[in-house]
Amino acid sequence: MTTTLAARGAATPGPATDLAIDARGLVKRFGDNTAVDGVDLQVPTGSVYGVLGPNGAGKTTTVSMLATLLRPDAGSATVFGYDVVDDAVAVRSLIGVTGQYASVDEDLSARQNLVLFGRLLGKSRSASKARADELLADFALEEAADRPLKDFSGGMRRRLDLAASLIDTPPLLFLDEPTTGLDPRTRAQMWETIRKLVAHGSTVLLTTQYLDEADQLADRIAVIDRGRVIADGTADELKQSVGTSTLTLTPVDRADASTVAELAESVLGEPAVLSAEAGRVTAPLHRQDLVPDLLIALRERDITVDEIAVSKPSLDEVFLTITGRD
Ligand SMILES: Nc1ncnc2c1ncn2[C@@H]1O[C@H](COP(=O)(O)OP(=O)(O)O)[C@@H](O)[C@H]1O
Ligand SMILES: [Mg+2]
């Protein structure tokens, strides 16, 4: 479940405490596959930093190197000034990591698992019990606390995973896709929990596939694709670069799609993207008030549109815009 089982307390933050993480040119290869291809990350202490990218982008591999679980093939990184390779023990004493999937003792209850982790971290039995009670309350797991874990839902497991990583509140916490696959309500609960945690002063590095999640939680975001950071900035900066929304138009007759794309471009003043197979046209939409003008222009050409949709920017659109590919 958590990988911070080494006793904590030895190290205090090192010399470069204004940066919780300073990574330069990190590389990790698995055979021919360069999973992480020169990643730079500067994470200010006290912030929530989002690493946003699709499946396979290299998020977990990056986190694993920063958390001393994998050795970089090239580049270097420090955590509070400690080198992740040379000072791995010090780094481990300052971090907490939650896995993408919890793996814990299924026959033990949530409470027993938390107490066990507390004991493994070197806490006394009574301190472990007290901390378990606090965490069960914080994560709304009190009712289920004494049921065996095999009866837990995915959302409850995820909350327990996060709880376990907070038995000692680490100065730096890695949350690797804490809400992937959760239903919207549980996601929202999880966001609340993460906000509480940040309010307590931890620095958080959060990986996610969801732009809205990074938007909700992160002070700064790095967009990662194919092992590279392709954009970074605040959520607002990224949104401005991808447009506030996306307009999707599907003409009844696919043969009209290229005309639709041309009209969309001239009316909206944005480069439209035509997806040939789907006969669908998408365009960034900065000004919703121009949509009626576009519809009128289409009607003047006798083009009937089967489907018209306005969507908030998603990770897909960020990628489409930043990388120029579908
Ligand atoms: N232990 C491993 N052995 C071989 N390939 C791996 C291993 N871990 C990850 N990869 C590969 O590295 C790439 C990045 O994976 P990962 O870091 O897990 O991405 P993400 O967390 O963004 O989904 C993928 O192509 C994945 O298949
Ligand atoms: Mg991953």
Automatic annotation (TrEMBL):
Keyword Nucleotide-binding assigned: yes
Membrane topology: Peripheral membrane protein
Gene Ontology MF terms: ATP binding; ATP hydrolysis activity
Localization terms from the record: Cell membrane
Major site of localization recorded for this protein: membrane
Any single GO BP term: transmembrane transport
Pfam families per UniProt: ABC_tran, DrrA1-3_C
Superkingdom of the organism of origin: Bacteria
ABC transporter domain: residues covered: 21-251
GO CC terms of this entry: plasma membrane
Keywords: Antibiotic resistance, ATP-binding, Cell membrane, Membrane, Nucleotide-binding, Translocase, Transport
UniProt-listed NCBIfam families: drrA (TIGR01188)
Sequence similarity: Belongs to the ABC transporter superfamily. Drug exporter-1 (DrugE1) (TC 3.A.1.105) family.
Protein name: Daunorubicin resistance protein DrrA family ABC transporter ATP-binding protein
Species assigned in the record: Gordonia spumicola
